[in-house]
Amino acid sequence: MKTTAATQQTGMKQQEFEKLFSEHGAMVYRAAYSVTGNKHEAQDVQQDVFLKLIDDGRTLEFTTNPAGYLYRMAINKALESYRKRQRKKETDEGLEPLEVVPVDVNHREKDMRESLLEAIAQLDPGHVEMLVLSVDHGYADEQIGEILGKSSGAVRVTLHRVRERLKDLMCR
């Protein structure tokens, strides 16, 4: 089979995509899972993020900070997914849920997690990014600043404000 310039170019894009996915796929999944709290939704978000790159025809040169860009996309898509699920619950009220809840599940813990997710969904997506990087991934303020292109001082102040806002939302 003869290789043409077009197939070589497509192959190169596939290699770039595979490299990008191998380097950042797990991080995108963890970010999505942190927001949705659901393994299947997180996988869907991960898939959506990388499919969007393909659909948009992006290459590795699309940004100077691919990790930050993909992380932001994951958080935004996860928040969008969570909000859609909440809206669907509101429109489906009164219908019997399809999921079967195991007997050994701690309902209070489940309610608390759901309340936390509802509060997080009300926050600015940029603030959720910082919060997830700090709490779920354990990054220091300096590391978060590097990932998101902000100073460590700005990260510190924003995280403090976000935590206070989250406390207010949770207490309601």
List its traits.
mainly alpha; Rna Polymerase Sigma Factor, Chain: A; 2 domains; disordered N terminus; Arc Repressor Mutant, subunit A; 172 residues
Helix and strand arrangement:
Layout: H1 5-36, H2 39-55, H3 66-91, H4 107-121, H5 125-135, H6 141-148, H7 152-171
Helix pairs in contact: 1-2, 1-3, 2-3, 3-4, 3-5, 5-7, 6-7
How would you characterize the overall build of this protein?
- By secondary structure, the protein is mostly helical.
- The chain folds into 2 domains: 87 residues, Rna Polymerase Sigma Factor, Chain: A, CATH 1.10.1740; 68 residues, Arc Repressor Mutant, subunit A.
- The protein is built from 7 helices and no strands.
- Helix 5 packs across helix 7.
- The chain is globular.
